[in-house]
Structure formats: C-alpha cells, structure tokens
What does this fold into?
Amino acid sequence: MSRAREFADLAGSADAGGITGRNIVINGAMQVAQRATSASAKSSAGFHVVDRFKFINNTSTGAVDIEQSTTVPAGQGFGYSLKVSTSTAKATLTGTNEFGIQQRIEGQNLQVLNHGTSSASKATLSFWVRSNKTGTYVVWFYKEGSNRNIQRQFTISSADTWEKKALTIDGDTSGSIANDNSNELEFFIVLGTGPDRSSGTAPTAWETLDNADRYVGQTVNILDSTSNTFYLTGVQLEIGEKATPFDHSESYGETLAKCQRYYFKFLEGSTKEIGVAWYYTAAHASFMLRYPTTMRATPTGIDTTGTGYYTIYRNGGSDAINSITFENGSTEQYSAYNNSEASGTAGQAGLVRSTNASAKVEFDAEL
Amino acid sequence: MDEMTITNAQYTSDLNATIKCTIDGVEMQVPCDPDNRHYAEIQKQIASGDLTIADAE
It folds into this structure.
C-alpha cells in the first residue's frame, strides 16, 4: 500500500470517528450527571447538573433552570444535551456581569498543545448548539497560569435548530502550560455579558488578559426573557484545524471515572454502606472512606446532615448520628469520625450506614 | 469567576487538616490542600482580611 493511500485511509478513519481518545474535553456528550439531572432557579455559579461543566452566573438576579435534556441533534449518536432555560429574566446585563458555561482543563492533559514553544499547535473546539436566540456568541479561552486569553465567535442563524460549530484557536508560542494538576486552560461559552467585559477590543490572537476585551462581540443575552433556552452537546477539543466527528468510542464507565477525578458522589439516600467503624473512645467512632479513583486534589467533603441521617451498628445495638466530620484527607481517601452522638464502648467495631432518604456524602476536587 | 461567599470557618480538629465552613450557603469541610479550589479561595480571603478561621473546639 502506498503512503498516499495510508494517509487517505487515515483521514477517512478520522472522519468516521475511527481515531479515538482525541477529545480533551471530559463529558462532552453530557452523559454523566452525578450531582443531579436538573436544578431549578439557579442564580449563582456552580457545578449544578452535568459533570465537569460549570455554570457561571454573577448577575445576582438572573436565574436559570438547568437540565440534562434528552433533546439532541438527530442521527449524531448523542443521548443527552445540557439545557439552560431562563427562569428569572434580567433584560440588561450591567458592569462585570457574566453568564455562561465553562470547563477547566488540567495542565497535564494539555501538554500536547506545546504552548510556550515554537511548536505550539492549533486546536479546534467543536460542539452542537440550539437556541431560540439567534445572534453572535463568544467562546473565551483563558490560560490562568500565564494570564493570557483569546476568543472566537459563532453565530446561531436559525432559531430552535441544532447547528454544529467549530472554532479553531492558534497555538500560543508564549505562555507555557504547567505539566501538573492545576487549571491551565478554560473555555467559556458566553450566554450574556455586561459592558465591563465587552467594551474593549476582541482578543483574536493570544494576548495578556484585559478584562474589557474578554467577550467583545457577544450580542446575545439568554437572560433577557423567560422564553429563552440554550442547548449544548458534543463538545470536543482536539489538536489541529479540523473538527472531526465527535469521539463516541469512550464508554460511559470511562467517562464516569474521568469525572470522578473531580467530583465523586459517595452516596445518596438511605441504606447505603459507608464503612467499618471503630470506637476510639466511648464517644468517638472513627471510620474511613475511599474514592474509586485518585482525585485531582484532596477533595472538599460535603455531608448532608440531619437527625439520624447515619447510623453506626455495633454490639447488637446502634447509634443514630447526625453528621460526619472529615478529619484527614488525601487524593485517595479520608478518615472521618463522629463524636457528637456516638455512644459505645472503646474498642468496639461497627458498621456505618446511611439511614435517611436525604443523606448524601460528596467529595469535590473540581478545578 | 470564582467569587465565593465563605462564612463560619473553623478548624474541625486539633490536626488543623480540615476547615468546616459555609460556602455559598452549603456547609462544607475543606482540606488544607493548596490545590483545592475552596482552600485556595479561603487563603485569598484571609490574605485580604475578609475571613478568619476559628480554632477547633
């Protein structure tokens, strides 16, 4: 076979999705939603629904409903999209208001970009969008480590119609990317901006951040009416100038494991086992919690608390406890204890279990 | 983009390894790991004089 034929076949394979593992974005098909599949009236920033995609909103009064939606572009192999619907409108955004969808990427997943060298590579972000709001949208790319940014724009020209967009950004020969677990590149799909973020000159090439430049060109404000919706799926960032078809080769389990590096829902609901406890003293029961994968950093522990939400079964009896105190954590595990309701005998062992439908234990190591 | 409202910060034990606090209305237990985004924000607010951490009980 000639080299020309091999290259032609390679290109054809890429077009058919045959080259796998090229998507730098995690959960681009919006499959994993550990926290919730919907959230109502969100007026603050946070990871509210699908994993890895952070909702940014500092508008104070504007609020949205967010959903893992089954509305998807036909025939593209997607099961879900991320849907944003305005629930409380803010017709005019002011000052530094910003509103949109963001994902941050670890530096050690970005070394292939070769930023900071003469071999810096172009990269292409592609995605499917649908909205009733036609007009120009900005996607803002920012490297926190070097405080450099660039933006690209796309247009939704047909209301309520799925459209695929592809935006290519230059390689950056300045601003190297640290090879570690820090936030080294984020992209932000802007859904609305105030004038203090859009009154300068659009950064069409990599340059040092000027906040007034960030979202210049954004004409759409999704928050301007409670009739507005915005859908997003098939988000893919890959090396080069060509947007290849979305890489569907990654299994749900693989995507879930990637997401759990950043957030892990240990349990939700009643009758979920937590671990083996031992009574360090009569009133102090200790236990361990392990994560299924190494997390990006030592995570923040979050336990939903309430009377009898958890129970330690020991010595033919039980201690209903209200909360868990996380003591000493790592990227692998946490030690934890309860010394407020535990009441056993030093040296006893027991089993810790959730005993309320509202019980929930989470670990957060997001960027 | 990372503005957080942090209140009621207190070390959970004498190990000073974890800080219990309320972030944007949610009670959390934040490890003293500079790579943790919540801890990084706590440090920033301490440096600016907007937050103090109480000793463990």
